[in-house]
Design a protein that fits this description.
Number of domains: 1
Helix content: over 70%
Radius of gyration: 19 Å
Shape: globular
Number of helices: 11
């Protein structure tokens, strides 16, 4: 039972990152119709930003949670304004190819400077140690990651689905000309939305740094799984990204316990099954 609960904890931790990353992808695709393949590289950049802040500037984890998403989000805004904005009237494939190429360039630059080995990032002292629950030992930092991810994910869902700002964002995707007629600066809104989605990836990278270490390829190893999560949940579905991310993390953890050989492929098996019966995903809408 201790091994089972341990795998469930690992599944929840992985699910936390799946949910946050797929949420960022869902926000960008659902509101901007852009398939952002640089998302994994931006997740890695968030982790490296935290590492630089700690080792070069002496700025700790808590400030990195605020600074890294802003810095990486600003890079995302620059990419959107200078490159992606030129492709909005073209097929989605062009944006996919551009972001895929950018991801390879970013990963190559970091790998050239830092190699492929991981750089350690210390867990903040306030979150060090763990709690013995009797049936398992719960590391405090892992519990913090799960709770923080839930708060970020559902806060984002609330803003987009239940607030006036969110209604403007959704309306701008359906009829940008009409929204602009009401005095809303739609291009600026699109740019800030893209930056916000990128900032979510960077935030996940900061939270992942003490667990997985800081590695130039950490995003490349994760992005394919995250895309599968987005497809299963439904492209552009905010709630679908959150629920599917956590759910598939748990499924992956249970698979590691009961049938470890299938743990690396179970998410893709689920994706195939879902697409056979619901091509738009579990929570997606037919376009």
């Amino acid at each position: 039972m201790q091994a089972l609960f341990g795998q469930l904890l690992i599944g929840l931790i992985n699910g936390s990152f799946y949910a946050m990353l797929s949420l960022g992808l869902a926000v960008i695709f659902g509101l901007l119709n852009i398939i952002n393949f640089t998302h994994g590289a931006q997740y890695m950049m968030g982790a490296f930003c935290a590492w630089f802040l700690l080792n070069k500037a002496g700025v700790g984890y808590w400030w990195a949670l605020l600074i890294a998403p802003v810095v990486v989000g600003a890079v995302g805004v620059l990419i959107e304004r200078t490159m992606l904005s030129r492709l909005y009237k073209l097929d989605h494939l062009y944006g996919l190819l551009l972001t895929f190429g950018l991801a390879l360039i970013i990963q190559g630059l970091f790998r050239n400077d830092f190699g492929s080995s991981g750089l350690p990032y210390q867990i903040p002292l306030e979150l060090a140690g763990g709690v013995n629950l009797g049936f398992m030992f719960l590391p405090i930092y892992r519990a913090w990651v799960i709770v923080a991810s839930l708060v970020v994910c559902f806060s984002t869902w609330y803003v987009i689905e239940r607030t006036k700002l969110g209604s403007y964002l959704r309306a701008a995707t359906e009829n940008p000309v009409l929204v602009q007629a009401f005095g809303v600066n739609v291009p600026r809104m699109i740019t800030l939305t893209f930056g916000f989605g990128v900032g979510l990836a960077a935030l996940a990278g900061v939270m992942a740094a003490p667990i997985y270490q800081v590695n130039p390829l950490m995003g490349a190893d994760l992005i394919i799984v995250v895309f599968a999560v987005v497809v299963i949940g439904g492209m552009g579905s905010i709630m679908g990204a959150i629920l599917t991310g956590f759910g598939l993390g748990i499924v992956e953890g249970l698979t590691k316990y009961f049938y470890p050989e299938a743990s690396n492929t179970v998410i893709f098996v689920v994706m195939v099954i879902v697409l056979l019966f619901r091509p738009a995903g579990l929570f997606g809408r037919e376009r």
